[in-house]
Amino acid sequence: MKLTNFIYGISLVALGLAIYFVVQYPESNRLQMIAGTLTGIGISLNLYSFNTKQHRVNSIER
To answer: What three-state secondary structure class fits 30?
Structure first.
């Protein structure tokens, strides 16, 4: 359970950094590309942590 929470926290940090880069540096194409990559990584990690948490809940109920 703690690893799932850690992955969720990392996903929120990645999404927060992506938003920060977009807001602070709107003219920098390099940081826009990094922000897009961080968004993809953040959403992927967020979905992974959610799915593993749901899988554990379903396996406990059985």
So the answer is: helix
Question: What is the domain range of residue 14?
Answer: 3-59
* Alpha carbon distance 1, 6 (integer Å): 9
Closest CA to 22 of 32, 12, 30, 13: 32
DSSP SS3 for 2:
helix
Banded pLDDT at 62 (limits 50, 70, 90) = low
Q: What share of the chain has pLDDT > 70, as a percent?
A: 87
How many domains in the chain? 1
Q: What is the number of other CB atoms lying within 10 angstroms of the CB of residue 35? A: 22
Q: Which residues contact 16 (CB under 8 A, 6 or more apart)?
A: none
